[in-house]
UniProtKB/TrEMBL annotation:
One of its GO terms (cellular component) is ATP-binding cassette (ABC) transporter complex, substrate-binding subunit-containing. Pfam families: ABC_tran, OB_MalK. It comes from Virgisporangium aurantiacum. This is Sugar ABC transporter ATP-binding protein. GO terms for molecular function: ABC-type transporter activity; ATP binding; ATP hydrolysis activity. Keywords: ATP-binding, Nucleotide-binding, Transport. InterPro entries: AAA+_ATPase, ABC_transporter-like_ATP-bd, ABC_transporter-like_CS, ABC_transpr_MalK/UgpC-like, Mo/tungstate-bd_C_term_dom, OB_MalK-like, P-loop_NTPase. Transmembrane segments: none annotated. The keyword Lyase does not apply.
Amino acid sequence: MSTVGLRDVSKVFPDGTVAVDGVNLDIGNGEFMVLLGPSGCGKSTILRMIAGLEDPSIGEVLLDGEPAATLTPRERGVAMVFQDFALYPHMSVGDNIGFPLKVSGQANREDQVSEVAGALGIGDVLARRPGQLSGGQRQRVAMGRAIVRRPRLFLMDEPLSNLDSQLRGELRAEISSLVRELGVTCVYVTHDQAEALTMADRVAILRRGVLQDVGTPTDVYGRPATLYVAAFLGSPRMSLMEATVKVVLDRYVALRLGDQELHIPWKDLRARAVARYHGERIVVGVRPEALLPVPMDSPGDVLRGRIRHMEHHGHESLAFVDVGATAVVVDEMATPANGRMPATRGLRKFIDRLVGSPAQVAVEERAHHAEDGGGGRHSRKPAELVVRLAPYPGVNAGHPLAVAVRTDALHFFEESGNRIDVGHR
């Protein structure tokens, strides 16, 4: 087993593109860490730097507390599993699995290959070639080739993305249990939040090369650190609405959403934190599980609106309800008009030196943070609450709908995108 540390790691490519920007991350011994984010957020680049296939532009990678800069990929004791399987088509399954043992000159290769293949359920196809296997079988062969080396560290780069959804569900359970059984540290890259939340001990969420949040699946889902994380995690998505704060001392804090209000009782500890924004706008997030359809004349914290459209999913229906509020929409991969990613101050001189001319990073960074707040570029549009209904709900687009809101389950963010710290309830 191995521990991994990233210390102020940044990666800038020769054209000045900032792929990874000042990432600090510790991965514990035997931990299953998932790097999650959309395409182009830098997660695969981080994996390649850990493996030694890329060198950090700034910062360092630590393995077991020691700098890894002088270690070759082979000396790092890592095994990688790739998205495209990377199997040798002219070799049998058994030869593919045993190839790392052959290269290292180990004896008793057949016994080790048989043991690993049996554990992965492919012991009966050892004589076949990769072209004769299903996608799931090829992925198991790729896993077997990594496992047979008995590495200290597994690095997996979207290993299930080429498989159909049912097979992905089966294999993610197998991979998760197998890695934990072996007790090997694993860094797993994916853009699929279902994989991240079901497999990980901890999840590290990236956006445009910047680490947004790190924590257990429960932590990052239940207390997202930024507006971007709140918008990215969850299916159905969290509804994010612009609210104006009004304080009625010793009674409640009102959240004005268009022409409607929600109230946080003054005895609720969160009211004190939100009250600091009296007269200002904040962003209020609410997940579908915090909403309950009720009769239109119900009292209490109820939002009323009209169903804009419906989605039927078999086991449930989703109603998208216009409540007259303003939604905050976070753009996952918004970039400046010239395509250049914003960079932290520590990278400016490096980029200037790399591209041979003064970089416009400082100007772009100011413009970006003025609009973005560092937590996720966002725009406005009419809000739609996502409400879960029964499979055959008896309502349709255009119908009125009232929903009771669990105010204890609301999420609060500054307009800049940072979470408002309301303490623990």
